[in-house]
Amino acid sequence: MMNGDIDFNKVPNWWAICPDGQCKMADSCLRHQVFLCAPHQVTRWLCVLPHALEDGKCAYFQKAERLMLARGFKKMFSEMKSRDARHDIRIALTDYFGSKGTYYRYKDGERWLSPEQQQWIVNLLAQYHIDGEGVFDEYEETYLFK
Predict the structure, then answer these.
(1) Angle CA 119–30–144, to nearest 5
(2) What is the dihedral of CA 75, 79, 83, 85, to 10 degrees?
(3) DSSP 11
(4) What is the mean pLDDT of residues 117-146?
């Protein structure tokens, strides 16, 4: 894995990195790859300590894989013809996200939608005979820090 495609500016400050290059999983671990690309001016960061590795397994391991994330679904609602469908879908999404506030953060594009969340929304739209292709406002292939 090459860490050159990781944008350190997109790494949340609450997300722990791992300096343990001796770990057998270091080459495929996003936490270690982010450590390797940390700029020299960054001198302090939250870290996973080497003794987190027990019996060859690390509870903090995160596979370094790029995902297609989506953000926002204002466009989806603006293109919807049926007012009833808009209302029902909004209620279902609010329930899915857990609150109106969280719903609006996703709808307005303040939070990225994971591939699983995107699929859930596409499946919901299919129940209303709405094509889920390209319904999100923005897409980006990137790493998901979780």
Answers:
(1) 30
(2) -80
(3) S
(4) 93
